[in-house]
Amino acid sequence: MARTDAIVLGAGIVGTSAALQLAKRGLSVALIDRQGPGEGTSYGNAGILEGNTYFPYPFPTDPGALLRIAFKRATEANYHLAHLPRLLPWLIAYWNAGRPKHMFEFAHAMRPLFASAVAEHEKLMIEAGAERYLRKTGWLRVYRSDAGFESMKSDLDAVAKAGIPFDVLDPAGALTLEPDLAPIFQHATFWPGAASVSNPLAVTRAYDALFKKLGGVVLTGNALSLHRSGANWRVDTHEGAVDAPQAVIALGPWAPDLLDRLGVKLPLEVKRGYHRHFKARGNAGISRPVLDADVGYCVAPMEQGLRLTTGAEFADRDAPRTPVQLDRVLPKARELFPLGEPVDNPDEPWMGSRPSFPDSRPVIGRIPGQAGLWGDYGHTHWGLTLGPVSGRLLAEMMTGAAPFCDPAPFAAERFLK
Question: Which fold has domain 70-81+139-192+269-356?
Fold first, then answer.
């Protein structure tokens, strides 16, 4: 039997970053997962480090958008009808969290994390020798219609008051940044405070390698084997049992499978998403992620090709894939982007599940009623962005250091009142 200071369950970008931050502070740590680091949901995102984020993704209020979603004609969202009865309480809470008062509560609580996210990634990338994956070139949002851009004006005003830099561009200005886009849009915003990575999987693996270099141990095992063993937590792995006085649940969408068994029920749901990779036509390409805001998809340049990512699908985590959103957005994407032939199998698009609480804030901190058990999950669309900085906050809490920001907004107890 092996003994460590801490066990981290889940080797996505969030869990790997948490394990690395703990190891940097001198703890002996075992990182445990059923698969390799970064091979789950962490692999399939747009690669954006959203240091510019201020508000959460809102519940749609436009009647036309709601009708398109209801009749399953929308590009930005899809749902499984059989999942709606279970999802309804979560959707009501999500709608409530999208009211102006709560949107600003989110902004106040989350801004310290987003403001530090790019710098924390860059620091770890330098230490891990992974700087080649980092692009500090911002990202671009384009709006095909005047109405789409006008609907964002109040948000942009709030962002400007918060001091977050962005540039409003006309089509000519946007084409200066990305000359191979088709000029079919009316407005654009450029966000220089954001960064992006060219291979999210490689970044997670680089953090994993640095973790091992610092003495961390990566083991294969099932998180559901976590149980009490005296004063310690114990997990059974292929290499034998591992004990530690502290354990971290960083299992993303799989966290409820374990926490429900421990009697801790928190309102986590998943937003599934899909992606495919394409070659660029000829010598064309893009230099940064670009969001087609009116349609609801993103294209990002990756080492694997141009990655086309979809919006959210509300369905059971383990339900069969239904990648209809890819079919809906692909013709629109070809209007705007120089997409050539697909790189991967169109019959098996990648799918991942974003773990989401209704207030769009993660749980970072102690798990109620479970001594020595911590949580670091529920980062919704921002797992890649916030993995290192939420790992830092968690490590500071676990080691008794002064946390760099107020951890209270991320406490699990907010759902147990």
Answer: D-Amino Acid Oxidase; Chain A, domain 2 (3.30.9)
